[in-house]
Specification:
Elements: H1 2-17, H2 32-63, H3 80-89, H4 94-109, H5 116-134, H6 142-164, H7 171-202, H8 210-220
Helix pairs in contact: 1-8, 2-3, 2-4, 3-4, 3-5, 3-6, 3-7, 4-5, 5-6, 6-7
Keywords: Membrane, Transmembrane, Transmembrane helix
Pfam family, one: ABC_cobalt
Protein name: ECF transporter S component
């Protein structure tokens, strides 16, 4: 009898620990805390973009000068706000909102691409939105984050970068460029963004969001 009870408790704990929680209320009914948190996250990312653009990306360009398509392995850095915003707020438009705010901050602080960063922000945000919409805003795990990062990178590259930055590339180089961007989107934005959201939740800063509730439930189930 006790053995069956232990098995049932273990099964219940496993289900609780893996439960994905959607945003409360109507999907389009954003709360004030949703807007404020997404905006603060995006502003922080925008400042990080400026620092990356200024101090790190020139080194990336220098290191990959012999094979420029490899430079696209850095793309995932710019996709993080969309992935993290979508995973935290879990409402339609959250990924796009966070990415566009971050792009605006990057534009204000200065960058090497000018106003074009706004177009990039739009495409990058829409890529993540497309994946979350495909899952009907019901999946927010690492798998959804990885797919969001890949879709974001693909839309950015196919919709803009191939034509603006690499028109002279051979078809092979363009495919390699896309593959590098997709890999970066999966690893840096997808897995990295998912890890960042979980890390923020562990601080207690996201207790008002589903990701914070999931973490509390997983802890109580142990």
């Amino acid at each position: 009898m006790s053995t069956h009870r232990t098995i049932d408790q273990d099964a219940t704990s496993s289900v609780t620990a893996n439960r994905t929680i959607r945003a409360a209320g109507r999907p389009l009914a954003w709360r004030g805390v949703d807007l404020l948190t997404a905006a603060m996250l995006a502003v922080a990312c925008g400042v990080a973009f400026w620092a990356f653009d200024t101090f790190v990306y020139p080194l990336v360009t220098l290191v990959t000068a012999g094979f420029p398509p490899a430079g696209e392995l850095a793309l995932g850095v710019w996709l993080i706000p969309a992935v993290v915003g979508g995973l935290i707020v879990r409402r339609p438009g959250a990924a796009l909102f966070a990415e566009l705010i971050a792009a605006n901050i990057e534009l204000i602080l200065g960058n090497g691409w000018g106003v074009a960063v706004l177009l990039s922000g739009l495409l990058q945000g829409l890529g993540v939105e497309a994946i979350l919409a495909l899952f009907r805003w019901r999946r927010f795990g690492a798998g959804a984050a990885v797919l969001g990062g890949i879709a974001s990178a693909a839309l950015e590259i196919i919709g803009y970068e191939w034509w603006a930055y690499t028109p002279a590339y051979t078809p092979v180089w363009k495919v390699v460029y896309l593959a590098c961007g997709a890999a970066s989107g999966a690893a840096i934005a997808g897995l990295g963004g998912h890890a960042l959201a979980r890390a923020l939740a562990r601080t207690g800063a996201l207790n008002a969001f589903p990701v914070g509730q999931e973490l509390r439930e997983s802890r109580s189930a142990r």
